[in-house]
Fold these 2 entries.
Entry 1:
Amino acid sequence: MVVCKKWILAKAFSGHPDSSNFRMETEELPDQLKEGEVLCEAIFLSVDPYMRLFPVPPGSVMMGEQVARISKSENQNFPVGTIVQSMLGWRTHTIVSDPSKLNKVPDLGDLPKSLALGAMGMPGMTAYFGFLEACCPKNGETVFVNAAAGAVGNIVGQIAKIKGCKVVGSAGSEQKCKWLKEGLGFDEVFNYKTTPLEKALKDHAPQGVDCFFDNVGGEETTNVLKHMNKCGRAAICGSISQYNKEEKDKGELPYGPMLMNMLRVKGIQGWHHVQKWPEGLKQMLLWIKEGKMKYKETVTEGFDNMVSAFIGLFSGQNIGKAIIKV
Amino acid sequence: MVVCKKWILAKAFSGHPDSSNFRMETEELPDQLKEGEVLCEAIFLSVDPYMRLFPVPPGSVMMGEQVARISKSENQNFPVGTIVQSMLGWRTHTIVSDPSKLNKVPDLGDLPKSLALGAMGMPGMTAYFGFLEACCPKNGETVFVNAAAGAVGNIVGQIAKIKGCKVVGSAGSEQKCKWLKEGLGFDEVFNYKTTPLEKALKDHAPQGVDCFFDNVGGEETTNVLKHMNKCGRAAICGSISQYNKEEKDKGELPYGPMLMNMLRVKGIQGWHHVQKWPEGLKQMLLWIKEGKMKYKETVTEGFDNMVSAFIGLFSGQNIGKAIIKV
């Protein structure tokens, strides 16, 4: 008998997530699979801020992606040992009756399979397609990325460097700033907790911002838009400053600055381009192998600690991608 | 001797423009032109809301476009009688030393030459390029235009009809609404002074808005964005609700709705596409001649009445394009 552990959303989020929002349950899965079925055993699970924004109904298993190993199979297309990535939720074991919905993880060689939850998965593809299509960065332009040490932001900054841009990033600790500048080659970085945004942009992007990749939202977004150059492009990828607020920030509306400088601002989601992921994954893997794209993971050991890893996202505990190792 | 009348911005705008912002002056122009010069005599002048947004320095002649007749010429490329359109400001007579900056008005046949300030000029090209490039309307989609009886809005609605869209428009009087629906073929119209926006959009665009062409700004813009469909496109063309406010509206920020529905919002300005105007003007003239594009002008007689025509823009006095006939 296989016993699956799973995290349930015990009550709807309200304000900052805490442990009372979750409860763990176990579920006994049948030993016998039916024709076509496979049993997936989670190896790595992902926690991402979007899970606060698109929560499941209370009482359901939390949604989310995992990298799993097929440990039993009645489907010849998915033999035992196959490594897949899929939106199976916060659970250790899952019987999948239609494995065609599972994504086989490509051969990553010596690279960790958890990359399929980071640079080689949703955050990477959000950065790749979202940044390139919404921001259209050109050689020599100035790019500003906030929450730049996060799972998506650090990849955006690295793509911008590859595209020949000057990259300015903000993050919430000296350690993160150091990694962005020394580890990833960002041109300018600042700690948003110690430097006011307006001063930082004047100092680090005196020529104005051409491309803005926004993970933060709220009034910060408007203030960056006001610092953008004519015909600048912005991608709205996340609003982590807002997710835990019951009353969203009110503030000066951005339509005046958008009109004066003919800005283009676009909301983006990683899954929207899923049909084109293979192309993006191929490029990303090449960049990683060439050493042009570096990655960092903050790994939490143990499925039981998944909730604290999730909660930690909102206080900036992670550097790079937050991963749970079962 | 030629005496030119001109309107000076006497003091910077603050709040709603009134007659104290302006003074009339006269200027004596030399009788003798130099080699290459021409004398332009205004026939029609334009007043547009943008003049409140991009004002000239106090003490200068107000900026703006006019249609003028060359009444003296020392330039063989611009003989007497040539009709031109140019940004010559609020003045009756102008000596132009570099006529290459003047735009010759194409042969409009029996159509009024004032169209070069409306459908065949800046408002028309703002509608044409701004709407098509920022909103990318597709056959069968729902388009919402506010201030739809204004110089730009009415043209946007008509282009949207030509492109096979369902068009919903708002305006500030029953007379304007009637013109939009019965005169121009808008599918749905409402009077924003008597119908709250949210109710109006629910009633007239229950399927959601795919393309939004915004002339109004402020909280109305956010509220329309919240009613848009996935991957909707918005053009921010004007913010007439805001121009006369010293304190701009604050309100709920739009980044959440933009992210959830992957909206694309772009600020647009008519002059930005000036290199491509010939293509747009050709199409517009064809539509006018085919009867697919109708036009309406609110004509104020007399250069002396130009200020009151300008002030009237902000209380919605004009239907269609506001024109001053000298």
Entry 2:
Amino acid sequence: MQIVIIGSGNVAYHLAKAFTQNQIPLVQIFGRNENDLKKIAEELHIDYSTDILKEADLYIICVSDRSVEEVSALILKKDCLVVHTSGSLPKEILAGEYRKASFYPLQTFSKSKELEYEKIPFFIEAENENDKNILFELASKISQKVMESTHEKRKYIHLTAVFACNFVNHLFTRAKEISDSQDIPFDYFLPLIDETVQKIHEMDPKLAQTGPAVRNDVRILDLHKQLLKDESLEIYETINRSIKKMYEL
Amino acid sequence: MQIVIIGSGNVAYHLAKAFTQNQIPLVQIFGRNENDLKKIAEELHIDYSTDILKEADLYIICVSDRSVEEVSALILKKDCLVVHTSGSLPKEILAGEYRKASFYPLQTFSKSKELEYEKIPFFIEAENENDKNILFELASKISQKVMESTHEKRKYIHLTAVFACNFVNHLFTRAKEISDSQDIPFDYFLPLIDETVQKIHEMDPKLAQTGPAVRNDVRILDLHKQLLKDESLEIYETINRSIKKMYEL
């Protein structure tokens, strides 16, 4: 199967790398940014182009959500499969007469970091069984976790990731704001944070909950509220309310 | 120096273990729960008692916040140092005529887990330089991170930990609720969560923020709100508001 990757960002780079590392050849990496393309192409020994898109059986579009439609219209071939890698777009956004599918890797990619590709889950949606099988087989060569997913389901996958990652990172930011205000090195909290995350590898987070809210420790809750204001106070009250509701306190 | 640990819970066990592993002898472990005491004492080869408190230079009280005062009143000796291990109580809660101090390990202890003690930060507050030095020296034998801390500062330390750990765990719980609702294994999100946490070991969480709110991606934000209700919707709105405020969006 002839595969082309379109894009030169983090997703394009990491997918291209995962494929080449697993002896899945790429006929081309195609995109607008010649500098970035060239770097990837040289590192991974792939042909690249900014203007002539090669013939292929499968095109994997790895560009930002807002560019997917436009980029997909560049593929004029009909007898091929085109996939995007977005968590939030339907496969129907792809603008061409080819077969359409979604090939969504659930991971934050950053160029500088080495990733364990086999742990990255892939969510797949296709128009027919055959295309689904092609994509399952492909994803299974680089990852141990491959699952079918409708567009509707992908919305919830993305939403779960927002809570578990984006929002968690914001709590770290607000936490650091508090420790910075008292000249306490935020580093000191890293072992505790690591432990918190390690725990949910082994048990249901609902059962792992600790802290003043789940103990309904009114003395501490009142004391903390006096130390907070503005957005941090709002977060404190909202999350405590949510904990109380969940544990019926 | 003669040291006695009072308590038989997780903090008592882990402190006793860290001390004995670092060749710091304990003259006794004292508490109410004979079963738990006996287990710790046998594992670590320490004397234990539920009724006769031995003479010592330093008593380390490792009991729940609400029992610290009562337990501290059992120590009738005057020429000694008594410390509690609570993050939220002042050292003055200790009810005796001895010298008082606070010796606060910042960690969630659970009995079953092996801990890397040298990474656990200790926060110390004492009445005088001499006691402070004694406790610094002691903590430094088991941990690489020892810092002075007033009662006021400990409140903020605890509050930081609530945001960075307790609240983070609750977000994991709400995230799992979302993925469970769609039969998506929560395990699939663990690599992404690990990556999120790994990142803040290397960079300021404020700079690591990703997601629809910091991109001000109104399409996704509106879509997500339609998928949520009740407490999860409240959390979604509160945290997005906080992100927008922080990044001046």
